[in-house]
Design brief:
With 378 residues, this protein is mainly alpha-helical. The protein is built from 17 helices and no strands. Helix 4 crosses helix 16 and helix 7 runs parallel beside helix 9.
Length: 378
């Protein structure tokens, strides 16, 4: 699940079955029927969630429903590349919201971003000890299962160092999913909206300009796939949107229907990642991962109060900025709920950059700490 999971994000995601690399799914009528049925159920779930006034209905509705179906053993199929297209739309929408004034305010928050990242790293380290005790796994698995990085990167590095790849993957999936399921409801209960607007008054909704901007964002994200930039499908369009908007070349407002479709794609994809056979094969790991996720979520709430007091940011914006989930889900939450999506984006990008570049150094320090606590082996 992934934030910063550049290698995973560069591949179309499916729920198994068809080989997307060989494009055999394109010639498989069974796959198309299953995919249409999956999205039909997701649309119905989103519509029902909107009637029930659930926050982010078009993401949480499909997420909850597809998760339940997948855990029940139903074989679901998602559109290859659907999640990436959803990320592109959200990234462009957020990038276009940046103005020179907002950009300046974002740079002014750099010290707070660094401090917030260090806080998150301390929280995840504490979570690793809790997880290690509950799950009864080795220290390497515990560290990378709770680290604030992308599932692909953390799982690969953990496996290279003797960790349990399946445990790392399951725990990250539960962390992101638990946060996505709980955060919108908590944000609504806090009741304090951000100060940003949905779009600037000069932004155009002309279909030609919108399509052009989305095409440019897609091309730019594709070009960044080979770069070390984490999650180019999200971060790339954000950068492009900032450049286009701040430079004055042109500014567009991504229509609400596109945002709804992006939510639908992301929620469906996320729900389909739950595999019954994997969860049932490692129940202790799954329960321990859930406990660690709730611990990190509570710590994010406490940190949000401190961050808000120190910077003057709304508690809701601070909460989303520190939430233990992928940048995509937290940014779309801020975008749809009219919060300060620009600042949420900046905090998460800073976290990804610092964690990705220092993870092995922090891991070495962690091993020393574990050695001091465990004592010499006999």
């Amino acid at each position: 699940m992934p934030e910063g999971a550049r290698r995973d994000d560069s591949r179309p995601a499916s729920s198994g079955g068809a080989s997307t690399t060989a494009f055999t799914w394109a010639r498989d009528p069974v796959f198309w029927v299953a995919m249409l049925a999956t999205y039909g159920a997701a649309v119905a779930a989103g519509f029902t969630a909107s009637l029930l006034r659930i926050p982010l209905p078009w993401m949480l509705g499909p997420f909850f429903f597809c998760s339940a179906l997948s855990l029940a053993g139903v074989k679901l199929r998602v559109m290859p590349g659907g999640r990436e297209l959803g990320q592109i739309a959200i990234g462009l929408a957020v990038g276009m919201r940046f103005t020179p004034q907002i950009l300046a305010a974002t740079f002014a928050l750099l010290p707070a971003m660094v401090a917030a990242t260090l806080y998150i790293m301390l929280v995840t380290t504490a979570a690793s000890f809790l997880y290690r005790w509950l799950a009864r796994v080795d220290a390497t698995t515990a560290f990378f299962a709770t680290a604030a990085g992308g599932v692909a990167d953390m799982a690969i590095v953990a496996q290279e160092r003797g960790g349990l790849l399946s445990a790392v993957a399951i725990t990250h999936a539960l962390r992101v999913s638990t946060t996505v399921a709980i955060i919108p409801i908590l944000v609504v209960s806090l009741g304090a909206a951000g100060s940003s607007t949905v779009a600037t008054s000069t932004a155009s909704e002309h279909p030609v300009l919108v399509v052009l901007a989305l095409a440019l964002a897609t091309a730019f994200a594709w070009l960044l796939k080979a770069s070390p930039l984490p999650n180019p499908w999200m971060v790339g369009p954000i950068i492009l949107g900032i450049v286009l908007g701040v430079s004055g070349l042109f500014s567009v407002h991504v229509p609400n229907i596109v945002i709804v479709l992006a939510q639908l794609a992301l929620g469906t994809w996320l729900g389909c990642q739950f595999k019954r056979e994997i969860i049932l094969s490692l129940p202790r790991i799954a329960l321990s991962g859930l406990a660690a996720s709730l611990f990190m979520l509570a710590a994010a709430g406490a940190g949000a109060a401190l961050l808000s007091a120190a910077t003057g940011l709304p508690v809701t914006t601070s909460f989303l900025s520190l939430a233990p989930a992928a940048i995509t889900e937290m940014v779309i939450t801020a975008q749809v709920m009219h919060l300060d999506a620009e600042f949420v984006t900046a905090f998460h990008v800073m976290r990804i950059a610092i964690v990705s570049s220092t993870i092995l150094f922090v891991y070495a320090l962690y091993n020393r700490l574990v050695g001091m606590i465990d004592g010499p082996r006999i």
